Amino acid sequence: MTVLNKIREHLDALLHPSARFDAMTSARHRAFIAPRLLGSLAALASLPIYLAVRGAPAEIEVAVYAWLIAPILVAYFLSRTGRYESAHVLSSIALATMVVAVSLVTGGISSFAAAWLVVVPLEAALSASRRVVGFAVSLALACVAVLVLVEVAGMLPPSQVQPHTGMAFEAAGIAAATLFAAVLAFGAESLARTSSKLLMVEEERFRLLALNMSDVISRHRRNGAVQFISPAAEAMLGGPLAGLYGHGLFDRVHVADRPAYLKALSDAARGGEARSVEFRLRREAPRGDTGGASWIWVEMRCRPMERSQVAPDDAEGEVVAVMRDVTERKLQEEALQAARVEAERADAAKSRFLATMSHELRTPLNAIIGFSEMIVREDDLMITPERRKEYAALINESGQHLLSVVNGILDISKMEAGNFEIALHPFMPREAIVSCCNLMALKARESGLELRTRVPDDLPEVVGDVRAFKQIMLNLVSNAIKFTERGGAVTVSSWVEGARLVLSVADTGVGISSDDLKRIGAPFFQAGTTYQRRHEGTGLGLSIVKSLAELHGGNMTVASRLGEGTTVTILLPLQATAATPRPSNVTALAPAQRSERQDIQVKKSA
User: Fold this and answer.
1) Residue 288: pLDDT band by 50, 70, 90 thresholds?
2) CA–CA dist 97, 94 (Å, integer)
3) pTM, two decimal places
């Protein structure tokens, strides 16, 4: 084995660089070079022995041994150029030339050497080229014709083979031809074995790729019919491959995506260029899963098959496609789009907030600065005590309004950050509701509204934060009064549904448009444009109400029609539970206390 390995290494070193990267090409070049080198070297090595036994050689013997150099030259040509077919052509010419030359001096067409012409096409068959084989056959027939014509024309030179050596030459020639044919047969068998081995390796490699790659490879007709599909489709679609052939895959495509799917295949088959399309495919639910089928997004890149890979009678043309599951990417794109919309909405909310704050902060600050300057200059302006008291009350009212705005912003910030603390204790909701309505009664009368309270006496005890509960009520009633025209009514109702307490505040005010209704409860959002508003406010009232309700495990719903009024409904569990919030470094005045204090001051001033 060591000697054979050494020989193989030397043969590999003689291969042209262009033949070293393909196993089959290397085998063909090696099979061409090896027998010619070894045969020629063995024959030349036997020349001294032949001369010692035979003596001085005849002209024909010199010609035979001279011909043995030709295979070495042809092998050298292949080693230097890598032109496999050209090397076979040169080898056929050299062999045919030698056969004709020997046949002419040993009897013409009836010579023992003429049998070698049969070997010329056989040798060319190893080239695996029809052109080389056709050339070799034509060359052999031409040589036969030349020998026949020479003999018929009487131009055949006298035979140089002695009668007593003729039989030996014939036997040697036939034996040599047989031996050479055997070498060719073994070479053909070796190439066939190498080809079969390489084919098995390639099949195993592609089988390994097909079984383990996540992308699906398929072969389609222009009408979408599947001719072949890789095993990865089973994992992707959750069904057997047999159901995907023909129009089985098309039947799984979402109805809305079928035109795009067929158009991509048709364009690729007709236009000769690659096409890409995204569509939805139905995925079967795993066994034991009662959730039913689902839809996945698939990206398919398809291109026409090469003509060498398609049957000549296939007029439609076929397409090879690679499909990949891109559901996760689609979900990310949708999430990104939602985030973009949310960012745009937040940016719009920020703009509205700045526009609102420019009014809500500037108005009370102007009042505070203006009236305080007038008090400072009371001697110059000769302000009476009654007017000074009025100015002080206006400064206090403006300060309270300014504090309410700032605390509202702090409260909603704490709620969004999860730092707003609620203290859960049992309390009677009816007392809290009536108390809040009494506080807002004066404001309702001043606005020319009727404030109605419909709260049963037997409302059960509730576990929650009474401060937050009162703030919910005060914000809702204050909002309803603010947006109800004079002569209207605000109705506060409450009842129990199952394990939840229902709070309802309905008004007959201006109402909310359907477009704005979808965004009610978002921080700093106010219905209508900034310059259309006739009422002060930061747009935090309903947002705070919604957040406080959610902190108790409840929720808020809003029903409204433009010009007909609005109804806000709060559902709170009778036994609220809240997670421990994160500690907050910001301390704000309790909203309920602020509202109570403000209304008490209004009553006192009245």
Assistant:
1) low
2) 5
3) 0.45
